[in-house]
Specification:
With 376 residues, this protein is α+β, with helices and mostly antiparallel strands. The chain has 13 helices and eleven strands. Among the domains are: 5-211, Lambda Exonuclease, Chain A (Alpha-Beta Complex), CATH 3.90.320; 228-283, no CATH class.
Length: 376
């Protein structure tokens, strides 16, 4: 049966992947729901990797499946190796189990605890009294831990809905398989602990999040919030450091320094998010008092590397630092500035830098067509 519009919207709001955020900050769920989604190349790359991983596990299990390789926009040797290692891990795990039941890319419904909540488990295995949920993650920016990972716990609750009546499950084992950074993280919980969390923490907070209620809370979870740049609670949290009023470090107490160290990375990330937001608004036409958009710094580059190499070789110089062509600066040092301009001046360019937001006092001219160029 198809989900109705309300259920579909709630699922998007209360997704398992964003659960760490809305559990920590329930009202952020509805705040993010009205903001546009941004689909990145990283997300598209992850989707391709999951398709290939699914195919390999289905093949391992002897199930009919079509090789998706030729239709994957981001396929490469690394993706091939990573999905091979994922399938191998599952094969080795299955070899240790007695008559396991295996489900691949299984829809998991946890709406008993989260309004309209469901997700997709990459691999779910039941054997004896243990339920194993495996999540394949292709990202390489941040190592993901399985330890009390709320996304994995939601998937486990969904898997229980399928198997609890058929198996006498006593433990839940959650596995994060993140091959690009050699991260294999596991966490095993007694079933009683998972169910206690679901009733006492998950269910009430999900109800608040669905209604857009509860208290805003800032922290590490803000990293993946679409409203992170303009959230007042996050601003208040980070501006607490302002009370130190740029005091010299040697005048601070140990406790003060420890406090700053604990929040410094988040403060830096918040400032970067605010600057990015302000730039994007300026590119859309907003005028910030005292600021303008200008072209940022850029580096010279070759317009025709093959022609550059030929010209330098004809001049009697070696243009290579094996195995690559010398960079522009190194090539200028090799030839001398005058000869560089004579030989390669027409084969180099200095592209316009990316737009950046600066005070009006900056002497660079304003960039009138910033939006168009930024999109390009």
């Amino acid at each position: 049966m198809e989900l109705n519009d309300h259920a579909s919207r709630l699922h998007a709001v209360l997704s398992a992947s964003s659960s760490a955020r809305w559990l920590a900050c329930p009202p952020s769920a509805q705040l993010c729901a009205v903001l546009p989604d941004t689909v990145t190349d990283y997300a598209l790359e992850g989707t391709c990797a999951h398709e290939l991983a699914e195919y390999k596990v289905q093949k391992l299990l002897g199930n009919p499946a079509s090789n998706p390789t030729e239709n994957l926009d981001f396929y490469d040797a690394e993706m091939e190796d990573c999905t091979d290692s994922y399938a191998q891990y599952i094969a080795e795990l299955l070899a240790t189990l007695q008559e396991p039941m295996v489900l691949v890319e299984q829809r998991l419904d946890f709406s008993r605890y989260v309004p309209s909540g469901f997700g997709t488990g990459d691999c779910v295995i039941v054997a004896d009294d243990v339920l194993t949920v495996i999540d394949f993650k292709y990202g390489k920016g941040v190592a993901v831990s399985a330890d009390h990972n709320s996304q994995m716990m939601l998937y486990a609750l969904g898997a229980l809905e399928l198997f609890d009546a058929l198996y006498d499950i006593a433990e839940v084992r959650m596995v994060i398989f993140q091959p690009r950074i050699q991260n294999l993280s596991e966490c095993t919980l007694p079933l009683s602990e998972l169910l206690h969390w679901a009733e006492t923490e998950l269910k009430p907070k999900a109800a608040l999040a669905a209604r857009g209620e509860g208290a805003f809370s800032a922290g590490e979870h803000c990293r993946f919030c679409k409203g992170k740049a303009t959230c007042r609670k996050r601003a208040e949290y980070n501006l607490q450091l302002a009370k130190y009023d740029f005091a010299m470090p040697d005048k601070l107490t140990d406790t003060e320094i420890e406090t700053i160290l604990a929040t410094a990375d988040q403060l830096t990330a918040w400032v970067a998010d605010v600057k990015e937001y302000a730039l994007r608004q300026a590119l859309s036409g907003k005028q910030w008092h005292g600021y303008k958009v200008v072209a940022g710094k850029s580096n010279r580059k070759y317009t025709n590397p093959a022609a550059v190499a030929a010209a330098v070789q004809a001049y009697g110089k070696n243009p290579y630092k094996e195995p690559e062509l010398l960079g522009v600066t190194a090539m200028e040092q090799l030839l001398g500035r005058t000869q560089f301009e004579a030989l390669l001046g027409s084969l180099t360019e200095k592209p316009q830098g990316k737009p950046t937001l600066v005070p009006y006092s900056d002497k660079r001219p304003a960039w009138s067509n910033a939006q168009e160029d930024f999109n390009e």
